[in-house]
Amino acid sequence: MSAPPTSSMLRALPTEHQQRLMRIAREVSFREGTRLFEEGGRADRFWIIRTGSVDLDMHVPGRKAAVIETLHHNDLVGWSWLFAPHSWHLGAETTTPVRAYEFDAAAVRAMCQDDPALGMAVANWVGKILAHRLQAARTRLLDLYAPYGSGSIR
């Protein structure tokens, strides 16, 4: 399933909000095969991919983790940082070398609290991505584990 058009912060947020967030961004790089986070871990940061790709995966007991979605250029990696209890709902691993902008979650949440317009814009942006990713997870898990034909939506 492809990323939603709103996954890009550059398309989803007004320019003034993008600029404020980018002032606190930190450029980072990761080698291929780096685990960015695990399900249940503390969600204290998030990333916007500049180059490379990241797989989002879900632990499936007794099986290999199921890849839910692959993220690419301009995609948001991580949404759990925005919602209490701030713990990851999925895992993430780089599948190529990745360059990204990294954001401190507590700093962004504080900015959002101080500026309700920024907070609403960020919440809408992340909420749309979350809705897309939940649908992607459902579809992928049905593809992998449901009996043939059980994934049809009525």
From TrEMBL:
Any one Gene Ontology cellular component term annotated for this protein: cytosol
CDD domains cross-referenced by the UniProt entry: CAP_ED
Gene3D superfamilies referenced in this protein's UniProt entry, alphabetically: Jelly Rolls
Native organism: Streptomyces albiflavescens
SMART domains named in the record: cNMP
Protein name, entry field: Cyclic nucleotide-binding domain-containing protein
Family matches, as Pfam families: cNMP_binding
Residues annotated as domain Cyclic nucleotide-binding: 9-78
Single GO term (MF): DNA-binding transcription factor activity
InterPro entries: cNMP-bd_dom, cNMP-bd_dom_sf, Env_Response_Regulators, RmlC-like_jellyroll
